[in-house]
Structures are given as C-alpha cells and as structure tokens.
Amino acid sequence: MNQPRHGNARLRQSYYWRVRNARLPMLARINAEEVWHIAPGHPGGAWASVDHGPGRPEYHLPTVLTRAEPGSGRSVYCAACLRCSWEGEELSGRDAEGRAVEGAHDHACPPWRTLRPVPLAEAGGSRAVVVAQMGPGAPVVVQGPGRGVRHWLPCSRLPVYCIAARPRRAAARGGQNPLF
Hints:
The chain is of the alpha+beta class.
C-alpha cells in the first residue's frame, strides 16, 4: 500500500491510522511518525477535542499536517484543508507549526489577516462576530504578548483557531509595527 500523494489531508490521516495500527507485515515496517498525518490537537487529527466526524465540512476548514523527517526525527509541518485537496509547502525550523496554521488560514479564509486583534478575555465572545463577518473556519485573532506564542484551538464545538497576533519589527524607525 503506497502512502497517499500530496493533496488530501483526510486520506493521509486514514493511511496514518492504518500504519499506526498495522496488522499487515508490510505496514508494520513503516515508522508511523514518518508518515504525513494531521497534527495531534488540530481539526481532523488524533486527540482533537474539536473533531468534526467522518463527513466533509461544508466550508474550507484549516488544519496542519506533520511528520518526522526520516533519520533526524525533526518535525516537518504542512498547512492543509479538510474540505478540499489543497496543501501548502513543507515547513520546518522555528515556529513551523505556527506558520503552517497561518498558511492554512490564508487558504481557508484569506481576509483573516485584516481582523482586529481582540483581548484574550474577549476571544470567546468575538467568535460570533467573526463567523458573521467572515464565515465558518475563520480564526479569532488574539492580542499576544510577543514572539513564541502558539496558536491554539479553544475547547468548543467548532474547530476555530485562536491566532496570537505577534508584532513584527517595523522596517523604518518610528513606523508602526505590522502584525504577522
């Protein structure tokens, strides 16, 4: 059985579970961590508190794929969509998972970067506003304290990311710090 080709997060996850629970000798020889799969805790993945079940969602739904690089064990990430076969580029290194989350949202809800960051205390209440303005699958952008803050999925019925807005350094001295 061949590993699914680039382009379908759902097929990749199904194949991963076949390898992980291998009963066939040819699958038992494959290291499950080196197989592309939906990152734990992300929509559609293992241990996700916001799994949406076996059917396809009605809207583009961002998620993140991961695998370990053969030999090194370092994690590689890739943005993906659970609705269609879109996948982003492979990312590794510092904050690769966060960049993959942002890339998945660039596909699923392109204008998400224009959202005004809200204080963390207001994030739950602003979810209804974001859905009304941008549709399901759009994230809630939360004011983050700075670099190194992970994006996360709050416990809720909908698989919606809270994306921590991280100010970047302004290009010119005295200029405004752009987000992301």
